[in-house]
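All the exercises in this workshop are built on plain-text protein records. An example says more than a description, so a record of this kind follows:
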Amino acid sequence: MHHSLTILGSGYTAKFLLPLAQHRYTHVFATSRDPDRKLTHLNPDQRIRFDLARPETWQAIPTSTDVLWCFPAIPIKLVQQFADAASLRTRRLVVLGSTSAYDDCASTEYPPPWIDETASVDLSKPRVQGEELLRTYYNAIVLRVAGIYGPGRNPVEWIRIGRANRSRKYVNLIHVEDLASSCLAAIEHADPSGIYNVSDGHPRTWTEICKMVEQRWEIQSSDSQDADSPGKRVLNKRMCELLKSDGTGLRYRDLFEALELIRRNSLNEATPSR
């Protein structure tokens, strides 16, 4: 562990991770391709202009910091060149991947079988190639992250606008605050080159989610055209052990309780204070 942390690619997840990281690190830096416009919530000395596609920006990354990599690790040639230039092999490096890395289940079994970190991945995907390069050659800890939701990224709205519809497909989700806690736990406690599935441990079908949303909030949905896909059911046991080592655990195990809390908070924010 270093005394400082650099977050490569400061998007949605970083907004929730930054306040937690500032309790652990003396200095926290965040990168963006346009930091003065997109990182205005940070002090200027915390903002770093960084673009993987522009090697002239690589030297701006501070030396001797832990690193959290939050964007897809592509293209692989630049990933390797940057990893060498930034000496990532000598740092604690956590890479945010995706559960989409796992091979689509060819089994006709339904519900689909549970998937743990030993399951095979689809190395034809460029992002997976980059993640595996960082893991095997640079000791990166890879978090295979389920669908991220939270304030401003709400499955209820996905259903309202038709982005998600009823189907028997299983979906794995993780609240962004639990993801942020998992990132910090991984930096401090995870095994080098380790793999950890990050999800709430309760995969649900879109039909189940849509029905509950209709019952609670009277939001209608339609049948999906992707009705034959079984989806995946991802185990999160290793992640839970990691959080326990960090003295914490999942805060949002129940999707519908979390969605209700998001709704109440958004209503409170929309109501002018007297």
About this structure: Residues 166 and 207 are 4 Å apart (CA to CA). The longest helix spans residues 255-270.
